[in-house]
Amino acid sequence: MNTVKPESIAVFCLTPGGLRLAKRLKQHLPLTCYCSEKLQEDGFVAFSGSFAATAAQAFTTHTALVVIGATGLTVRVIAPLLKDKLSDPAVVVIDEHGQHVISLLSGHVGGANELTRYLAGVLGADPVITTATDVNQLSALDTLAVQLDADMYDFRQSVKIVNQMLVSDQKVGLFWDHDSLPDTEGRWQSERYDTRGFITVNSLTDLPPDLSALICVSLRETLPELAIPVFKLVPRRIVAGIGCRRATSFQLLLSLLQQQLAKYQLDPLALRAIGSVVIKEDEAALKHLSACCRVPFELYSVNELRQHEHLFPSSDFVRQTIGVGSVSQPVAWLMSDGHLVGDTLRQQGVTITLGVSH
């Protein structure tokens, strides 16, 4: 899913008024501002051929595009570029007088609605947001997923169903499965998230009457059967430190990682990242594993691991091979700030230690 990053916002200025507005915005955000060669000033990048060509390039390299100009022109330029609501960047349009900021594309998952509100606040402008949940002062399932950095199975269809229920005045419950967190200190602070429109559910055995569906925020692999549709929203909180012999097979790593997650009843969608020692940066199976799981592959130096290896059992063979006596445990320790989960798996030259990040 795409979410707006402040350092990855491209602003397109089509008139002198657009340049003046962009300068105001640059005082608040680290923007990359584009304009024609005719209008170019210090701090602005000239279009690569044309506005349309530059916008097409930015569509794949930036998480948000802000056009200071006409909505119709913007629609015509981005129309051939649209692919998917879960990957398209946010697109926001501002009139050159800074009176209206319009969320045009990827309002929820892409973050255009949030960016629209922020830019409108900076400019003292009217935010124009047309998504049904926002118009009705409600949260949305995809908005909650972005805030939680969470995923779910059949995300697109689930969002469509749940959001339609919310705007149709149907009752949708929200249950925070705190017991699914492996760390007792890691309870979700539910008050931090936008849950407008959802009905709080405190127990799966005592549901409020007339619920049409239930959202479960949980890391748990399986949930109990209920009489209403249940949509599981899985925050990415689990990290895996992995050590392995050279040329270990991908299938073995995948099988053992799945085994370790299942041992602690953790949904595979809860995986946030895998990590290892920097000497493993070219280990094909580890790189393939991170790609397969769609998570980052994080690397730590031997010196970083040495600072924490005294906390864990060491192997003389591992120390002679890479310079530190343990890999998976200190890696998981660093990735989770010391919040490890259960015991380390040790099989067939592979070690896997899980942690939970906050």
Measured on Cα atoms, how large is the radius of gyration? 24 Å
- CATH architecture type of the largest domain: 3-Layer(aba) Sandwich
Spell the H/E element sequence: EHEEHEHEEHEHHEHEEEEEHEHEHHHEE
Morphology call: globular
Distance between the termini: 20 Å
CATH class value of the largest domain:
Alpha Beta
User: What's the CATH topology label of the largest domain?
Assistant: Rossmann fold
Placed side by side, the strands forming the largest sheet appear as: 3-2-1-4-5-6-7
**Broad structural category:** alpha/beta
Tally the helices.
12
The overall number of domains is 3
Percentage of residues in DSSP E strands:
15-25%
Largest beta sheet, briefly? 7 strands, mixed
Q: In percent, how helical is the residue content?
A: 25-40%
- The low-pLDDT segments are none
Q: How many strands appear in the DSSP assignment?
A: 17
Q: Average the pLDDT over all residues and give the rounded result.
A: 92
Blueprint (SSEs and pairs):
Blueprint: E1 9-13, H1 16-26, E2 32-35, E3 44-46, H2 51-61, E4 64-68, H3 71-78, E5 90-94, E6 100-105, H4 112-123, E7 126-128, H5 132-135, H6 141-148, E8 150-151, H7 155-167, E9 172-176, E10 198-201, E11 213-217, E12 230-235, E13 238-244, H8 250-263, E14 271-277, H9 284-293, E15 297-300, H10 302-306, H11 316-322, H12 328-336, E16 340-347, E17 350-356
Parallel strand pairs: 1-2, 1-4, 2-3, 4-5, 6-7, 9-10, 9-11, 11-12, 13-14, 14-15
Antiparallel strand pairs: 5-6, 8-12, 13-17, 16-17
Helix pairs in contact: 8-9
